[in-house]
Description:
Blueprint: E1 4-7, H1 8-37, H2 46-70, E2 72-75, E3 78-86, E4 89-90, E5 94-99, E6 110-112, H3 116-122, E7 129-133, E8 139-148
Parallel strand pairs: 1-2, 5-6
Antiparallel strand pairs: 3-4, 3-5, 3-8, 7-8
Amino acid sequence: xxxxxxxxxGRRELEERLNYLKSVRRAEIAEEIKIAxxxxxxxxxxxxxxxxxxxxxxxxxxAEIEAQLRLAKIIHEVNVTFVEIVNGVESAxxxxxxxxxxxxxxxxxxxxxxxPIGAALLTANNGDTVEVTLPNGRVKQLKVINIVR
Length: 149
């Protein structure tokens, strides 16, 4: 696994999730397994199978989070507002927060520093116009209105 870029808030969120899984969810699943064992024959016990599957998935998530935290490099969020320029006309301003890939979530306005737009804007300054080549080959022209590091 390669280096994982996280913001400080992203690191805290992962640590909180890890703490919840280890301190609360493990106990809940252990209780589910205990109850399911009481239903008798384990070879035909759907509740037991479901609880064991949940346990395996949770342990996998714990291992993944621990690896991410171990390999984490803390970066600062970059808040950027820009406009797209199409045929000389500027679009309405758009704002994003550039974060590490592990924290990217377009629905909340958080884009990856490794995405074409995130990578291009990461090194830009206020007033800069940058060209971004998208995976489909299309080129976008973006003008930075405001960037806060």
